[in-house]
Backbone:
């Protein structure tokens, strides 16, 4: 059981690492690809990639989606149409580092929705962990040199995190089903919906290689990330998985240091200590027994 629990934590952190790739590379693609079109092909890449993976490597002991899961799947597809469009529009208007930091609000949204709507047990330790992670996020925004502000772009990113917070909880309700099937339906359904929105607002197609790059990024940063996120939720729940998912901004910061040669100040390391403390509290004991 302990091995299964630790493996779920690893899956949550791996999901965060894969998703962290989306910010810098999406920002790069936005220079050439319209935001709604990019959101569409990110999710189409996630769905198509997972479908191909399921054909090459079928999951033998997984439960397929059932009729009673339809309401959650519809909600997830709708939310996954809205969230990436909001994120890409916000990312177009705000720095990638700013958008990455704002993604931490997904933790708060996921936990509050899990507690209020789905009655998921959240113990005192996890609430303290979420508070520490939130405080770390605030400190990190202070280090951004003034780039953090509640601009229109920032508000769009925040709206995306709320959508994903609700979507995380919907995913939790069907986490026992085949993750590959879940991601395939979410990716293809949400991608197709976003593509319709892109057509309605008059966005134009770009070169095929850029769209292929977007699909590849979508498969890695969205498809595989959601796949491992779903596995983690099975064992540790939506709120706790979201807490571990908070390492994504740090992975993004490391990528920035390696690729862009950025050097963080002392506030970053204080925030890192708070984040590590929050992750430790989140991993201590079972929430339902606190």
Residues:
């Amino acid at each position: 059981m302990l091995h299964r629990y630790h493996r779920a934590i690893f899956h949550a952190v791996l999901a965060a690492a894969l998703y962290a790739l989306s910010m810098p590379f999406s920002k790069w693609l936005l220079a050439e690809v319209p935001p709604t079109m990019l959101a569409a092909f990110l999710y189409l890449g996630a769905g198509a990639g997972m479908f191909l993976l399921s054909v090459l490597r079928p999951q033998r002991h997984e439960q397929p989606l059932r009729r009673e899961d339809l309401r959650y799947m519809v909600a997830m597809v709708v939310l996954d149409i809205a969230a990436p469009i909001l994120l890409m529009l916000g990312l177009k208007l705000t720095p990638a580092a700013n958008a990455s930091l704002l993604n931490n609000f997904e933790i708060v949204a996921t936990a509050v929705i899990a507690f209020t709507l789905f009655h998921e047990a959240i113990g005192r330790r996890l609430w303290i962990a979420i508070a520490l992670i939130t405080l770390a996020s605030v400190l990190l925004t202070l280090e951004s040199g003034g780039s953090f502000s509640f601009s229109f772009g920032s508000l769009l990113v925040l709206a995306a995190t709320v959508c994903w917070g609700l979507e995380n909880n919907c995913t939790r309700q069907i986490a026992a089903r085949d993750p590959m099937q879940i991601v395939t339906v979410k990716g293809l359904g949400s991608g197709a919906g976003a593509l319709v929105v892109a057509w309605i607002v008059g966005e134009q197609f770009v070169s095929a290689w850029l769209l292929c790059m977007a699909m590849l990024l979508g498969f890695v940063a969205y498809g595989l990330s959601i796949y491992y996120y779903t596995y983690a939720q099975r064992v540790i729940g939506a709120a706790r998985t979201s807490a571990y998912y908070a390492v994504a901004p740090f992975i993004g910061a490391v990528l920035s240091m390696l690729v862009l040669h950025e050097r963080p100040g002392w506030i970053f390391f204080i925030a890192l200590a708070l984040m590590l403390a929050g992750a430790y509290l989140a991993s201590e004991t079972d929430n339902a027994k606190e």
Residues 285-290 have pLDDT under 50 and may be disordered. DSSP finds twelve helices and no strands in the chain. Residues 208-244 form the longest helix (37 residues). The radius of gyration is 18 Å.
